Amino acid sequence: MTTPMRKLRNYSIKPIETPGFHNAPLYIRFKLRSGKLGGGNHFHRIGAGRSDDIQVYETPTDVFILCINTHLPYVGLEHIDKEGELTGEATNVVFLQEGSVEEVLGEGWEKTSTPEMIRALMEYMQ
């Protein structure tokens, strides 16, 4: 049985000027309702670009941040374990670009639903 995912709506994404970075990295802030990390605001650096379509979903134990750029093309999935330690970084990351995107998600991948993309990319996380 597949664990249901729900879209996380209570989050914000903004760049934070950081010494050593030419382009300010993006940070996501969100609040969780469940898990060991539940009940508070969480702040994580993400690997998304400013022009990416960013979607955030959660399960009872995980948060998934999907970054899509159809123009370059690439997709990235970042995973945060809600039962793990709060580090400010994703627990697992997978990034695919150009031909690898179609190879993994199939032709017409741009029309694939976000939960379907997340589940497909989860297979490539270590």
Summary tags:
8 strands; globular; mainly beta; 2 helices; 37% strand; 126 residues; 5-stranded antiparallel β-sheet; 3-stranded antiparallel β-sheet
Q: What is the chain-wise order of helices and strands? A: EEEEEEEEHH
Global Rg: 14 Å
Global geometry = globular
Percent of residues in beta strands?
35-45%
Unreliably modeled segments: none
The biggest beta sheet, please? Answer: 5 strands, antiparallel
What share of the residues lie within helices?
Answer: 10-25%
Secondary-structure content class: mainly beta
If strands are numbered along the chain, what order do they take across the biggest sheet?
A: 1-5-6-7-8
User: What is the rounded distance between the termini?
Assistant: 21 Å
| Domain module tally | 1
Average pLDDT figure: 85
Number of strands: 8
Specify the number of helices.
Answer: 2
Write up this protein.
- The chain is mostly beta strands.
- It has one domain.
- Helices cover 13% and strands 37% of the residues.
- The protein has two helices and eight strands.
- The strands form two sheets. A five-stranded antiparallel beta sheet has the order 1-5-6-7-8.
- The radius of gyration is 14 Å and the shape is globular.
- The two termini are 21 Å apart.
- The model has no long low-confidence stretch (mean pLDDT 85).
